[in-house]
Amino acid sequence: MIATSSIVRKTTRQISCQLTGEAAILNLESGIYYGLDEVGARVWALLNEPRRVAELRDAVVEAFDVEAERCERDLVALFTSLADAGLVEIENA
Fold first, then answer.
1. Range of 80's domain?
2. 28 to each of 8, 34, 66, 81, how far by Cα in Å?
3. Domain assignment of residue 2, yes or no
4. Total domain count for the chain?
5. What are the tens digits of pLDDT across the range 54-90?
6. Which three-class secondary structure state does DSSP give residue 92?
7. Would the CA dihedral through 78, 80, 85, 86 be positive or negative?
8. What does pTM read for this prediction?
9. DSSP letters along 29-63, please?
């Protein structure tokens, strides 16, 4: 389970680039591309270094018009999907 104290980090099995308001990520093992919208791209950029979910939530709440609880739920869903795709690793504290 992903908690606010969990640390999220990008895997080394991916490469990515920022596009105009979006991000494209390639899983090097599967060859599958993934795309992130503006908010997802912002989160992805913040993951250039490992970060706690709470820190990422706070940064998104500050940058976008979203309630903290909704943001946290959306981040957990995003990180679950990215982890399932092999793009991030989750370390629980």
1. 7-91
2. 19, 11, 33, 17
3. no
4. 1
5. 999 999 999 999 999 999 999 999 999 999 999 999 9
6. coil
7. positive
8. 0.93
9. TT--EEEE-HHHHHHHHHTTS-EEHHHHHHHHHHH
